[in-house]
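step=predict obj=Gastrula zinc finger protein XlCGF57.1-like n=247
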Amino acid sequence: MIDKVCEDDDKQLECSEKETSKPFSCSACSKTFFFKQSLRTHMTKHVGGKPFSCSTCGKTFAQKISMESHVRTHSGEKPFVCLLCDKTFSQSPHLESHMRTHNGEKALVCSLCNKTFYQRGHLESHMRTHTGEKPFLCSLCGKTFAQKAHLRSHARTHDGEKPFACSVCGSTFSRKETVKSHMIIHTGEKPFSCSLCEKTFFFKQNWRGHLESHVRTHTGEKPFSCSICGGSYAHRSSLAAHMQTHD
């Protein structure tokens, strides 16, 4: 339900009233969108397919401007130039986004939490953290994701692709973030230190014995509780072990 609908599309992001739905609806399939431009782009799926094709790789597009933008990924052409620092871009929206880094402007505002963004795509992605929408579907297992990048990363669990390699030992990984974590093994770096006892750790979180888990030995915090008997534990693994006593 919408407390107040902003009639002016340009002012929609600045509306002071909080929105909890998507005001732009497709008349063909009833799918809804936050932005009118997103609806226009979606409508091309209903009225003619993808008539524009890339002569280099054969990829097809619903809009000519999208095809022309894609072609520049092959040619490397970057015709859009920043007049302040001479940095070049392949797409006009990227230049517009870059220009805001010079003047500090963040023109796009989330109507639910007021967080600001340089790019409309980033705002649309952020909005899904409020709605819980996961529009990107894995065709192999049916799992859905809020971000396209997360779907691409997940797809590698099916095909076994590991495109990210360690420059030291050659080990390969499916995610770039995993390579960064792996590199610590070679460097011996322990960038995370406890502010209470100055003990250092490889990782900030995720594994028992690392920083966030260690800090609980000082604070006594036990955030993991048993839903059956109410017992609380400092570590998730301790709770898991405890739960077996109820089986």
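step=describe
The longest helix spans residues 64-75.
step=end
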